[in-house]
Amino acid sequence: MLTEHSRHRDFPSLSGITYLNTAAESIPPLAVKEALEAYWTDKARGMRGREGHFVAVESCREISAKMLGLSTEEVSFCSCSSEAYNLLASALNLSTHDEVVVTDLDFPAGATPWLRAVKPPQVRLWKAVDGELDNTDLKPLLNERTKLVQVSLVSFYNGHRIDWRPLRDMVRLCAPNALISVDITQALGRVVLDCNDADILISSTHKWTLGVHGGCIIGIPRKNAERLTTHAGGWYHLANAFDADRFERAVTKTGALSFSVGMPNFAALYALNAALRYVDGVGVAAISAHADPLVQKVQAGLLHLGIKPLCSLHESRPTGIVAFLHEKSPEIHAALEKAEVHVMHNAGRLRIAVHGYNSAEDVQRALTILQQVV
Q: N or C: which end of the chain has fewer CB within 10 A?
């Protein structure tokens, strides 16, 4: 992944293109294709294939727990981050007297469940200033009624990475009843996590982790298991799903295990197991050491062209994303696409994402085209 040889060996689909859009969709390694083929082989065995299915789930739980710095019983899976946040809302069961803090740099999945609740809590918005979240702006939003603070470790919008420890300490001090939920979708597999002591961690599986759609990792430390147990119906998350009293009471497994309410998406978990083991084999620290200087090169190139990124980079808080607005963004995007340089374009915002399979040549190619247009 980090060398020209391993890039061509493990990611043959990158041949002939410059892919700088991992924050939207990753390019999986061949190991993921092989895992999906293994799923097919097991599925083709019918009911007998379930033995392989559940072995894959537990293997995926093991590597996921390692990546999150948790134990296996503290990690589980559902179908996507949107489902995870709705199940979190079910677990908290907040009232109109409660308060939730969200940020304007979060993905909608982390904010909308509180706005759509039957009895919505008061949602307080922590606004970014110059693309960054300042803890001094958070403090006035916190009080004893605050039950949840929802943040993304790395913002999907502009790549801003929160300063985790000061944020954590402020919430613990000023909002003693609050849980901290951290979306790590734009961080897991790309940067070394520093928020392992969050109350709940949530990540999609088709971005920096190099997996496919239909999966979501949930990490809940044991100390929060009782408080973060969903009230959703289902069967897979029940301790008495097939007992004689199953239509009289529903006994839910606690914590993270309660978020797996139905049949697992086995295909996604076969893929995730292979993807995370590939990432772990390379090493997240090695990926960060390789890709972080390339992100800095992107920012320097933009500044040289007089383009200000939507947030500043901090060496102590690496991120894989650089984003910017430009009046010529449609022309820039069209020129990049014509040259098979793939980035995200949305409402005038261009987002460049750099992973371990990218090279200095990829970044220079994008900057050269950008310079030609602007």
A: C
> Using CA atoms, how far apart are residues 75 and 71, in angstroms rounded to an integer?
7
Contact at 8 Å (CB) between 70 and 148? no
- 16 and 93 assigned to the same domain: no
End-of-domain residue from the set 263, 280, 297: 280
8 & 46 share domain: no
DSSP string, 169-203: HHHHHH-TT-EEEEE-TTTTTTS----TTSSEEEE
Domain's final residue, options 219, 248, 280: 280
Radius of gyration of the chain (CA): 21
Closest C-alpha among 145, 133, 198 to residue 175: 145
Burial of 136 per CB tally in 10 Å (0-12, 13-18, 19+): exposed
- Based on the domain organization, do 72 and 214 belong to the same domain? yes
**Are residues 233 and 367 both part of a single domain?**
no
Q: Which amino acid is at 308?
A: K
Same domain for 59 and 11: no
Q: Are residues 300 and 352 in the same domain?
A: yes
- Write the pLDDT tens digit of every residue in 248-283: 999 999 999 999 999 999 999 999 999 999 999 999
Q: Can you name the residues that pair with 240 across neighbouring β-strands?
A: none
Residue 112 parent element (H or E): helix 112-115
Q: Please state the φ and ψ torsions of residue 180, each to the nearest 5 degrees.
A: -110, 120
Q: Which residues contact 331 (CB under 8 A, 6 or more apart)?
A: 373
Query: Cα separation of 103 and 163, whole Å?
Result: 14
Phi, psi of 311 (to 5 degrees): -155, 160
Residue 135 burial (C-beta neighbours within 10 Å; 0-12, 13-18, 19+) = middle
pLDDT in tens, 45-97: 999 999 999 999 999 999 999 999 999 999 999 999 999 999 999 999 999 99
Whether residue 102 contacts residue 110, with contact meaning beta carbons closer than 8 Å, is answered with: yes
Reported pTM? 0.96
CA–CA separation, 115 and 222 (whole Å): 28
- What's the domain range around 343? 4-23+283-373
CA nearest to 309, candidates 181, 157, 122? 157
Beta bridge partners of 19: 342
